[in-house]
Specification:
Number of strands: 3
Oligomer: single chain
Order of helices and strands: EEEHHHHHHHHHH
Structural class: mainly alpha
Strand order of the largest sheet: 1-2-3
Radius of gyration: 44 Å
Strand content: 5-15%
Length: about 325
């Protein structure tokens, strides 16, 4: 109903048509924390949904006389409190579920007004069960319900220094010898050889390639296959003419009726389609129907469309 600066208001109305009595319920939930800071937008929406659920529940329980649901409500609570598992087992499961989502045990005890975990009773487990179910349905925020502050970012320690690998001095660079390669240089085991760049590297590589090509024998490869010349038609020969495209396939009568029935079904309501099926004495409109029944369906549907809005189904391709 209203989203203010500090609270949201939700309303629900329950109307008993048999007795012609109605009741209206309003529920308000705050959207600020203890310091007065407004919640984030997502948390405001979550609080609004919780307020609407509470208002709806209160309105339903107020419009229905308590004598009808009081005993059922008590038996449901007893069933939850006295389940097949012991209280200790169900208490441990509830605390484990809440602590896994950042709710400490002291906040749970403060919410239940208990001094220690062993004092949590079956009725307290009913309360925790309701909170857990509401949290699973995103109707409540656990931190707001147990009044737990949002976790603050922890200061991260400085990263430990990483040992840098030892770098050895590179071997001395050898000067190029005219007319030959570089002298042999001793290298540590496992290190790649150091390449020596000459002043005129391009000229040296070209010369080495030419010398290697001159020393290699000629390659005897397979004979080169020459493509034969294309056959040209003699002068005066008739030029072949491409065959005309095949005519488009014409739809048969049943396919046309089926397409019209599909367009008709998109414009008819469920009640009108029921009338069409009854007129043709069919249960479903599909392609397996005989031609006569499919035509009867289309004819009855067109009559309904003419009576309703005076418009005909568009022809195929329109």
């Amino acid at each position: 109903m209203n989203v203010g600066e500090r609270e949201v208001t939700a309303g629900a109305v329950a109307h008993d048509l048999e007795s012609n009595s109605a009741i209206s319920i309003e529920v308000s939930r705050r959207i600020v924390d203890k310091q007065g800071n407004r919640f984030a937008d997502d948390l405001v929406i979550l609080t609004s949904n919780a307020a609407m659920s509470i208002a709806f529940r209160n309105a339903v329980l107020r419009i229905i006389p308590k004598a009808f649901w009081d005993q059922i409500y008590d038996r449901a609570q007893k069933c939850i409190a006295n389940g097949k598992e012991s209280i200790a087992q169900r208490r441990a499961k509830a605390l484990e579920w809440l602590m896994a989502r950042g709710i400490p045990s002291d906040a749970i005890l403060r919410r239940l007004d208990r001094g220690k975990i062993g004092e949590i009773t079956g009725e307290d487990l009913v309360t925790l069960r309701g909170i857990i179910n509401a949290a699973r349905e995103d109707n409540v925020d656990l931190r707001e319900e147990f009044e737990v502050a949002a976790p603050t970012a922890k200061a991260t320690a400085a990263p430990l220094p990483v040992a840098q690998p030892r770098t050895e001095a590179p071997p001395p660079r050898a000067e190029p010898i005219p007319g030959g390669g570089p002298p042999a240089v001793k290298r540590p085991v496992g290190r790649p050889p150091k390449q020596v760049v000459y002043a005129d590297e391009t000229a040296r590589v070209d010369q080495a390639v030419q010398e290697a090509a001159a020393m290699m024998p000629p390659v005897q490869g397979p004979p080169v296959h020459e493509e034969p010349p294309m056959n040209k038609p003699p002068a005066g020969a008739p030029v072949p003419v491409a065959a005309p495209p095949a005519p488009s396939r014409q739809l048969d009568a049943k396919t046309e009726l089926w397409l019209k029935s599909q367009g008709m079904r998109n414009r008819l309501s469920a009640a009108e389609l029921k009338v069409v099926r009854q007129a043709a004495e069919v249960q479903y409109i599909n392609t397996v129907l005989p031609l006569e029944q499919l035509a009867a369906c289309v004819a009855r549907g067109m009559e309904i469309l003419e009576e309703r809005d005076g418009s005909m189904i568009p022809e195929e391709g329109a």
